Amino acid sequence: MSSTQDEFVPYKPHAVTITKGPQGFGFNVRGQIDEGGQLRSINGSLYAPLQHISNVVEGGPAHVAGVLTGDRILEVNGQNVEGESHSSVIELIKSNMDVLNMVLLSVPAKENDRLDGEAVSYTSDEELEHKSVEISIPSVSQREESGKSVSYYNVYLEGSFLISHRYNEFHRLHVDLKNKFPYIVFPRFPGKWPLKLSQAQLDKRHQELEHWLKQVCSVTQLFDHFYVQDFLGLVGKKREERVNSAPDNADVKVMLPNNTSLCVNIPTEAYVKQLIEAVCTKLNIPLHFAPHFTIFKRYDGDELPVPCMPSEQPNNLLVNNHNERNKLKLSFRKLPLSPEVEENMLEDTAALEILYNQAVSDYNAGLFDSTGKEIELNRTNHATTQADFVRVAQRCPDYNSVVFPHCACNSRTDGHVILSVSRDHITIQACSNSGEKQDQVKKFSWAHVTQYSEGDGTFHFTITKGTSVREIKLTSPHAFYMNYCFQLVLNT
Predict the structure, then answer these.
(1) Mapping DSSP to helix (H, G, I), strand (E, B) and coil, where does residue 327 land?
(2) What is the structure's pLDDT at 422?
(3) From the DSSP assignment, how many helices (H) and strands (E) are in the chain?
(4) Is 218 helix (H, G, I), strand (E, B) or coil?
(5) Gap between the Cα atoms of 47 and 406, Å rounded
(6) Exposure letters 193-207 (e unless 16+ CB within 10 A, then b)
């Protein structure tokens, strides 16, 4: 009986029983190292990644039982193994002393190339050793070479910079490893592009290179090999020199109010002010408007984006948070401005684009009260009437306001409050401990604010009306942002 898929017509799941012979079961297994993965269509049905039979010994027990090269393994002794790691499936197979029962799925020969190569896999009855390596490529730098700007991918190990490499150097390592370890199927390597890549294509290549490197370094036999150690700069002279070879610039991606992204190149040690100016320059916004914008940061799951502190370095923020579960995103937005400042900015096409898109975003999110203005807003919500849309939005209550998540307040023992800050007034609304709004609302004029400060996770401000003095203390992780908003209104 020949072991080729084309002889098996139905291509449906089928059970096989294999009795162990003197040389074992007579087949090898190949598949992804890690568990999980995306569903894929096989013979018209969706399956999680499957280990598969990579070789069947002619005349051996598996061959006699009808096992075919390329068969996908669905079950081992009654246990579903969809999405399981290579080591888990091998362990299940080896746990059987004499008889092995499996449910297999045969596929046409032409399907093998499509189904293979999604992750590092191994073809043997022995297991590859695995290790946990915190390897990442959190940033990309640009270097001038022969009059052209060339991208270098900055490799970090456990949060510390190792070395920078061009795409071609990653590709060379990929080829060398494949030649050295022919029995390992490596993850798909991002292909070359004949034309200049768009920003979206560059981002995709960046992600794919990092995924490839993580997969390779997760295998002890690969990570410890000279090829990889030399590539990472951990061998001999490279190890001594890499301390002084840290990149001096990095590409930083920021989100714009219309949910598109913009990539700018800044010095690695640049502060927020330099990033703001770099974004303004790339968008053709005059630099004298730069103080009216800032960079906001937001982690996955955060209720509210907060402005970066002037002392923060955007590239270091991104690098230090690259491997965290809650990803950090930076965005470029205007600050809550006075109508006079906004009116001046509406005269500039590039600045107007940001103001308009931010107003549209806030309108769609219900961040200001558009009651009675819906018809005007919808009528002017067009590329040719951007300034008119912003002017209508300016007349809406709570436009340009910042509403903070509910927090504890010294004046309430049985609930929380919601602080809202606008150019016109300060609003504190009572709410439950879970944030459900209640009827009690207090509004304060900026003219009555006599002092304010923040520290240790609390924000204080004092309201003075004649002889009446009232101190309000809010306990919130956004105390810095609250203080920032007060400073912005009272000092401009």
Answers:
(1) coil
(2) 87
(3) 15, 26
(4) coil
(5) 44
(6) eeeeeeeeebbebbe
pLDDT greater at residue 132 or residue 140: 140
Distance of CA 416 to the CA centre of its chain: 33
- Please give the mean pLDDT across all residues of the chain: 85
Q: What is the 3-state secondary structure (H, E, C) of 87-98?
A: HHHHHHHHCCCC
Residue 92 makes CB contacts below 8 A (sequence gap 6+) with: 76, 77, 79, 81
What φ, ψ does residue 197 adopt, rounded to 5°?
A: -80, 145
- Using CB atoms within 10 Å of the CB of residue 319, give its burial: 0 to 12 exposed, 13 to 18 middle, 19+ buried: buried
| 268 DSSP 8-state letter | T
With contact defined as beta carbons under 8 Å apart, do 483 and 453 qualify? yes
Q: Residue 176: how many CB atoms within 10 A of its CB?
A: 15
Can you tell me whether residue 162 is helix, strand or coil?
Answer: strand
DSSP reduced 3-state for 329 = strand
Across-strand partners of 263?
Answer: 253
| Stretch (H or E) spanning 184 | strand 184-185
Between the alpha carbon of residue 299 and those of residues 305, 325, 419, the distances in Å are: 8, 9, 21
State the Cα–Cα distance between residues 61 and 58, nearest whole angstrom: 9
Q: What span, in angstroms and rounded, lies between the C-alpha atoms of 360 and 358? A: 5
Nearest CA among 343, 314, 313, 347 for reference residue 331? 314
For the chain, the first-to-last Cα distance in angstroms comes to 86
Which of 323, 116, 123, 320 shows the shortest CA–CA distance to 214? Answer: 323
Residue 414, C-beta contacts closer than 8 angstroms, at least 6 positions apart: none
Give the 3-state secondary structure of residue 5.
helix
Q: Which residues on adjacent β-strands are paired with residue 166?
A: none
pLDDT per position as a tens digit, 7-52 = 444 578 889 999 988 777 888 887 776 677 777 777 777 888 888 8
Cα-based distances in Å from 416 to 312, 314, 434, 459, 486: 31, 33, 8, 14, 20
Cα separations (Å) of 19 from 164, 196, 357, 405? 53, 57, 69, 65
Whole-structure pTM value: 0.69
Q: What is the DSSP string of 394-440?
A: HTSTTTT-EEPPPBEETT-SS-EEEEEE-SSEEEEEEE-TT--EEEE
CB atoms within 10 A of CB 114: 13
CA distance 425 to 420: 9
Cα angle 122-126-130, degrees, rounded to a multiple of 5: 65
Closest-CA residue to 246 (of 158, 160, 137, 145): 160
Integer Cα distance of 87 and 125 in angstroms: 10
